[in-house]
Structures are given as C-alpha cells and as structure tokens.
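Following the same procedure, the fold was encoded as tokens, giving this record:
***
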Amino acid sequence: MTENYQRAEVLVCALPYIKQYSGKIVVVKYGGNAMINDELKKAVMGDVALLTLIGVKVVLVHGGGPELTETMSKMNLPTRFVNGLRVTDRETAQVALMVLAGKINKNLVNLLQGVGGRAIGLSGIDGHMIQAKKLDESLGFVGEITSINTDPIVDILDKGYIPVVSTVGCDDEGNVYNINADTAAARIAASLGAESLITMTDISGILRDCADESSLIRTVRVSEIPALYKDGVITGGMIPKVECCAEAVRRGVPKVFIIDGRVPHSIIVEMLTDEGLGTMFIK
C-alpha cells in the first residue's frame, strides 16, 4: 500500500510539469553513453514514448560518431579529426549516410515502437530538411547549416508520430554533408519554436569543479557563459556543446538542458520533477 501511495505522490508532483509541456514541442538530442548501452537505450526510448503519451511532442535528434568510426574501421577506411570534427571526404559522407540515416536511425525507430511509441525515421536530406554548405574546405563534406525546413517534422508530429532525425544534410547539387548533432538539434529546436531542448551527455552538467559532482551549476544565463570560459569552468569538448545550447537560447528556445545520459530516466527527472538533474541554460 505504501508503494502505491508513493507512486500516486510522484504523479501528483509531476502534474504541473505535465500541464506545462503538454501540447508543446521538446527536442531531445540523443548521444553519448546512453546511445551505446542497451539498458540505458531502452530507458531513453521508454521516456520518449511516455512523454508522447502525456501529450508532449518529442523530436528525437541523434548522431552516432562512435558507430560511424567502428564501421569505417571495418571497411579499412581512415578516420581523422581536426579540432574535434571528422574530416569527411565523399566516401566518408556516403558511409555516414548509410550508418546514421540507415542502421542507427531505423534501429531507434524499431526500439521506440517496441516500448509502445509510434515513430518515423527521417534524415536531414528528406524534404531538404537540413540544407548545408561546406564548413571548411580542409574538412571536406562537414556541413555548416544554411537553413532548416521543419515541414516534414511538423507533418509527422501532427499525425501523432515521433520524428527520429539523423543529422546528415544536403545542398541543391545533391552533395551529402555530415552535420554535428548538437548544432543540428539546436537549429531544429529553434526553427520549431520548441519549449525546450534537452542534450544528453556523459557528464552531470556544468560543474564548477570538474572533480566534484556536488559542484553542479543548475542554472546558467547565456550572459554568464564568457565568464565561465574565462574561469576555466567550461573547457575542451564542453565548449562546442555549450555554444550550441547558447545558440538555441539566443534563437528563442526558452530552456535548454544538458543532462547526464548515463542516469536511467534522466529525461523524466529533468522535465517532470522539482529538483531536475543537470544544467539549465536560459536567456
């Protein structure tokens, strides 16, 4: 009986947040350890399906760098990074299309449907959703986003499905581009007028002291970010992630979260509880 009361209490506490998000669009950028651990993967898909059932319009945006690297290794193709970006020749771009828009995307759609969700997989090429140009000639077909066409996503949402978007883009000449998933998720969230963007990572959020999990900074205003760079709080691989979060806020997304994808049901904890889990970026 006590357990039933606890469950009821959880639902009652979640009700204000359910009201806040019901009917709104939430973009989830899915990656990191949560994408390669089977147990965590199933928990994430369950969270997304649950949110959809309570009226939240979830858009799942994913990358898949580690699996792309593994596939290229099996194909005896070299992998080279410059400043954290994969050098992408035409052959690598085609492999990225195969792995991201094919294998990973359709496996996620299948997993979502296995836990009760209704999902349709898309790539940034479908409907010219993600239009791009070369970011830097030295990087090859690494794309800089020039425009986002949200019509395919909105059509799928309106029919009650969960769009699962792989981050490959294209241009008018038919070239395929490998797009950074954080960047794509930020632009998609802004273009959709999303209520929030949730970015899943392999850390707790922004830590004042990287060696102390209790030093989590729960709220960061975009105007505070330069000082956090200067103080060495945000360094290395977190810099581009934070820049994407800041860009989404500047483009009109009210709340952007970095959360720990290693924690089961972290999306639900962040969205539907008082305490939250990670770091929230606001204007």
Observations:
- The CA atoms of residues 25 and 57 lie 5 Å apart.
- The chain has a mean pLDDT of 91.
